[in-house]
Design goal:
With about 325 residues, the chain is an alpha+beta fold. It folds into two domains: about 5-85, Ubiquitin-like (UB roll), CATH 3.10.20.70; about 95-330, Glutamine synthetase/guanido kinase, catalytic domain (Creatine Kinase, Chain A, domain 2), CATH 3.30.590. The protein has eight helices and 14 strands. Strands 6, 7, 8, 9, 10, 11, 12, 13 and 14 form a nine-stranded mixed sheet that branches. Strand 6 (about 105-115) and strand 7 (about 120) form a beta hairpin. Helix 2 (about 150-160) crosses helix 3 and helix 4 (about 240-250) packs across helix 8 (about 315-330). The N and C termini lie far apart (about 55 Å). The structure holds adenosine-5'-diphosphate (ADP) and manganese (II) ion (3 copies). One manganese (II) ion binds near residues 110 and 178.
Length: about 325
């Protein structure tokens, strides 16, 4: 039969942190994936007596898991009058991206995450703790790196899907890893991060492993999980004044950003473990205890990009990209 499998992916309405959902549609080979629907009463997106929500395809890539002509179809969620659903943060990001298109904003996001086997981070003893943090960041060996087979399969899948996947590393807490997407535009970074998160969950599922984006998966003296967001405009890529102006602009709206950078951000931004307290805002060259870091290479070249270190691993990438674009470009 001349068909392909389309995996429709969307962001649900679960509070405080939305979940990813997906389902499969068989589509005739010569057709683009059409508008589709789902039961919003099962995803916290609609009441049972008016349960239909609409899936509008917005970003289609080859499906690296099924292969062949099969596709991953990222969707926006719409109401049945075809306006954006209240949970649709992508639509707001598109508006802001269009308004400030002249700034040519680029984003690179560093997604940290933690593998879990049941209630325990992958590689941890069932009871008690592994050895203290130290050897795990960029670590190598069976006593330092847990889950590398999943990490490698995820990288291959992201590249085969055509994402701007730019690197990976093992993190400070054992069982925790990071991948990076970018640099790409504000809507593109949200789309690609969402597909990359879905691929990670889906690939880990085959090993009986779950992926947590919890910003503080283990309490105590263990690093949290963030989503550092690197950002530049055309002016920042050309001169240092625009770099400093962007840092100052972010400082003007620090509270608004903190409120929208992911649930339970105060548990992670304590001022310890390479973070700046959520109550403070500061920026600095090479400073991993700052809210916003100017990389040393950028200070030397007098141009480049800045790193907003505040977003949580569980942040909404569309919201983060929208706020940074709006805050920096409206004050430039
Ligand atoms: P870190 O040293 O903080 O761990 P990473 O290497 O993990 O940094 O991530 C750096 C990110 O910065 C990458 O995702 C990359 O795509 C992004 N990046 C590089 N140049 C730019 C730029 N000009 N504008 C925005 N992002 C950029
Ligand atoms: Mn990094
Ligand atoms: Mn990291
Ligand atoms: Mn970083």
């Amino acid at each position: 039969m001349n068909v392909y499998k389309a995996e429709y992916i969307w962001i649900d309405g679960t509070q405080p942190t939305p979940l990813l959902r997906s389902k499969t549609k068989i589509v005739p080979a010569d057709e683009a994936p059409p508008i589709w629907g789902f039961d919003g009463s099962s995803t916290n997106q609609a009441p049972g007596n008016a349960s239909d929500c609409v899936l509008k395809p917005v970003y289609v890539v080859p499906d690296p898991i099924r292969g062949g002509e099969d596709k991953l179809v990222l969707c926006e969620v719409l109401l049945t009058d075809l306006t954006p659903h209240p949970t649709n943060t992508r639509a707001l990001c598109v508006e802001v991206a269009e308004k400030y298109a002249g700034f040519e904003s680029w984003f690179g996001m560093e997604q940290e995450y933690t593998f879990f086997e049941g209630a325990t981070p992958l590689g941890w003893p069932r009871a008690g703790y592994p050895g203290p943090q130290g050897p795990y960041y960029c670590g190598i060996g069976a006593n330092a790196a847990y889950g590398r087979d999943i990490v490698e399969a995820h990288m291959e899948a992201c590249l085969a899907a055509g994402l701007a996947y730019s690197g990976l590393n093992a993190e400070v807490m054992p069982g925790q890893w990071e991948f990076q997407i970018g640099p790409v535009g504000p809507v593109e970074v949200g789309d690609q991060m969402t597909v990359a998160r879905w691929l990670l969950k889906r690939i880990a599922e085959d090993s009986g492993v779950d992926v947590s984006f919890d910003p503080k998966p283990v309490k105590g003296d263990w690093n949290g999980a963030g989503c550092h967001t690197n950002f530049s405009t055309n002016a920042m890529r050309e001169g240092y004044d625009a770099i400093i102006a962007a840092c100052e602009a972010l400082g003007e709206r620090a509270a608004l950003h903190i409120e929208n950078y992911g649930f339970e951000i105060a548990l992670r931004l304590t001022g310890l473990h390479e973070t700046c307290s959520y109550k403070e805002f500061k920026y600095g060259v090479s400073d991993r205890g700052a809210s916003v870091r100017i990389p040393w290479q950028v200070a030397q070249d007098k141009k480049g990009y800045i790193e907003d270190r505040r977003p949580n691993a569980n942040c909404d990438p569309y919201t983060v990209a929208r706020l940074i674009t709006e805050t920096v470009c409206s004050q430039a």
